[in-house]
Design goal:
216 residues, 13 helices, 0% strand
């Protein structure tokens, strides 16, 4: 997309807030310079322009089925930080990455209203990460960590809900930056199933805390 076309796309209030948080975090990590905000906005607006070309038109009152992706693009922001604020490198990577299967699981806006999904799947408004990754996480949790699985069951809160939050935000605010980079790299190099193993590993790490909270 040319600069002139991209400028027509306006960022939502959620995206603007996300940009502020990303730039603040990037500066804290000494990865971004002062003019990084414009570069990140450019990346997000380009992503919106490109991804919109592969979306279906769905008439629905559901917020998650509106033309624009309802949330913030944490994955694109993560790549922007990995590329130290270089907008051209970020877009080049995302264009190549979008051709890989793993992009469907790491980059959630990638499949928003996507023509690559069956029409019925799109109309339900449920992302494949929820009925693929999150479903397998719950199945594995029962086998690997039955006490944690029971604790969630007793609380009336499903593990898939918190996992979807982790995955959507690329583990921002949950893991350190280097661990976030490892998560992204592992899933790209070893396959999307490592997203499931990562979540199970986190639950194993938190097992004692989860059980203690359940008792209390």
């Amino acid at each position: 997309a040319m600069d002139a076309d991209v400028k027509k796309e306006n960022l939502s209030s959620v995206q603007q807030l996300g940009v502020e948080m990303t730039v603040r975090y990037g500066k804290y990590l000494n990865l971004l310079k002062e003019d990084a905000e414009n570069g990140l906005c450019f990346v997000l607006m380009n992503c919106e322009t490109f991804l919109k070309q592969q979306r279906r038109t769905v008439v629905s009152s559901l917020c998650c089925l509106q033309e624009h992706y309802a949330g913030y693009d944490w994955f694109a922001s993560s790549i922007f930080l990995i590329m130290a604020g270089d907008r051209e490198k970020t877009l080049t990577f995302l264009q190549g990455f979008s051709c890989l299967l793993v992009s469907a699981f790491l980059w959630l806006p990638r499949l928003h209203l996507s023509m690559h999904l069956p029409v019925t799947t799109v109309e339900y408004g449920i992302h494949p990460v929820y009925f693929c990754s999150a479903h397998h996480i719950e199945m594995l949790l029962k086998a690997e960590l039955p006490l944690v699985s029971s604790a969630f069951h007793m609380s009336g809160f499903t593990p898939s809900q918190i996992c979807l939050q982790w995955i959507t935000q690329c583990f921002w605010n949950y893991m350190n930056w280097i661990e976030i980079c490892h998560y992204i790299a592992i899933c790209i190099f070893l396959g999307p199933d490592y997203q499931i193993y990562m979540c199970i590993s986190v639950f194993r790490h938190l097992q004692q805390d989860i059980l203690k909270h359940t008792e209390a």
